[in-house]
Amino acid sequence: MDILRICIFLLLYVFIGCDAKWRQLTAPRRVNARVSSPYSIQVKWRDPGVRTRVKDGRRYILRYYSSETGSMHDQRAVENSTGTFALLKENVQEKFIRVSKRRAKLFGLSPATTYKIDVKVVKGRRSSPWSDVIEVTTLEEQIDESTVQNVTAVAVSSTSILLSWIQPEVTDDVMAYTLVTMLVNGRNRIKKAVVASNVTSYVVSKLRPNQPYCFRVQSMKMVGPHPMSRPVIAKPLTAKPSGLPHSLKLVSVNSSLVVVSWKPPNQRTRNGQLTGYKIAYKRKKSRRNEAQYVTVGNGQRNYQLTDVEPNTFYKVRVAAQNINGTGPFTKWKSVYVKPEESREEKNPLPLASIDSEGLDAHTNVSLSVSPPMDIKVVNKTGNDLFLRWSIPETPACCPLIGYRISVKKLNDSTVRTLTTRNPEAHISDLEPNTIYEVKVMAMNSAGESEPSSQLVSTAGFENPQIIRVEGAKVIEGKGTRLMCEAKGKPLPEIVWVHERSRRVVDKYDRFRPTDIYTRSNTFAASMTRISFLKVPRALRKDAGRYLCIARSGGKEVSAHINLEVEESEQAPAVSKIQAIPLSPSSVSVTWLPPLNYSDRIPYYQVSYRKLQGSDVARYKNVTRVGTELYELDHDTDYLVGVIAASASGLGEKGPEVKVTTLTNEGLEPVNILVTDVNET
């Protein structure tokens, strides 16, 4: 036995020790680097913990710095918007890059500089020690008189960047320029374009939004290329999310709750940091404009819909959002909301299988249901009664079917009868200030119970009365609302009328009247109604007096409400207008909105005209802070100006900028594709 115990102990020790060793992450090995250019280095390494191609969530952090700036420090890194990790400690030029594969490429390095590089593994909250440090020296920069200088990259849109450069000092042997584009930390896919020797700008298109790209320009000669220019890193502008949320699931929990869950779109299609999600839902086969929308935060991956009706089909879809707007919605997905739960048993025993006479004789058990108790008047008006009672006791063999209610005036023989399945009833078409006798009987498969009787009376009519109104004072272009609260019996209806035009405001107008019922309980509404008249964007012509009319029982009462609209402030001049020529016939114009101006700017007016001659100015209205002007004359000077508009009209006019379109001489076709076609 002692030998057996010792063997078991050794086996457990070996197993636990191996398991602990397996759980500990091992530092990468065989880190090697290859110098690609004076500005870039390719790094590769091996991970002893990865023996298969199955992904297990491992990521790698590569740390590098110039040996001339100091030594390495194991500091905590923070990731910025470009994906590069920067240390919190100042005066230390260490940089970090996080990748998912066992290779990386470093850009933007200094020529003829020695760098120290090491790597570690990260998986969840665990991390391995740093690998051995290697030293790599970049190549010396080769610059001659034919090297392109001062390469600049300016983002024009979310998918294009404008490159511009200065021609080299010696251009005698320059035949063309080659533009090299590569995604930073991508799969080393290079895009090339060739332009003529007299062109100094080019628009690189079909780029990914908000992704860093590396650009270089190389002059070409007859016998070979000249050295490349220094690399320039730039990112296109951000855009709306182009991807769809996936794995949309809908679960109907009960008759008033539907749980919606989804997963975020692909990282490449988010176009920046997501700010939230937009959920749209509506009844099936309803109109598109009847859909309701809900917005949730970025960290939320599910939502509970409670504004649903039982026994109804609904359609739901979801879209991702960022700072630029809402992306495309997913396809509509249907869900059936469960009906209300019945109080009847699911599998009642059939009445034919029970001998009622023998059951009563031997066990003395009654099959009839008990009478309903506690009949209460929940609410009443001059013509309506709302009743509720308690659920009676029912035998297990014979489930409850429903209730029968009889109503008649006191000292009158005329009886009205109605049935219901729920322990509540709404009796309408009654006379005001009248006493009625109400009897309620429960029904099951064995018959009806004894009636429960109650004397109730309807309420008298109460003339409508407006108890509270609220006007508004708003600046032109802003939104506001007017409020009117009225009471009466029965519940009054509120109508809004523009006093000057005597026109009734309905839901199809620009103003949207909305009623809000204040409820005293979940069964019936109280006798107070509040109505709001929403004004989305007030104009000067909307100012004046509005009439709130409350109608109830054939009578009506009205009250005047004032809406004051003040003239909005004139929009200041825009700043930093830039005009960049894109081609001989087009120019890109960008600017910044007016400073210290919080009102809404509906549009911008862009004007452009020729500097020489008596050319009439042309205008273009845009809603964004940037546009492109087309159909211009080549090699011509233009004056471009931008004016911001407000609700009251055009704002202050700022200075105009001068721009010269590109020349139309010496242009050659780019990327010509020749295809061999046979005789047929």
UniProtKB/TrEMBL annotation:
Q: Which UniProt keywords apply?
A: Repeat, Signal
Keyword match Cytoplasm: no
Q: Which SUPFAM superfamilies match?
A: Fibronectin type III, Immunoglobulin
Q: Does the keyword Repeat apply?
A: yes
A Gene Ontology cellular component where this protein is annotated is:
membrane
**Domain Ig-like positions:** 464-558
- Supply the PANTHER family for this chain: CYTOKINE RECEPTOR
Query: Can you say what this protein is called?
Result: Uncharacterized protein
Q: Which organism is it from?
A: Elysia chlorotica (Eastern emerald elysia)
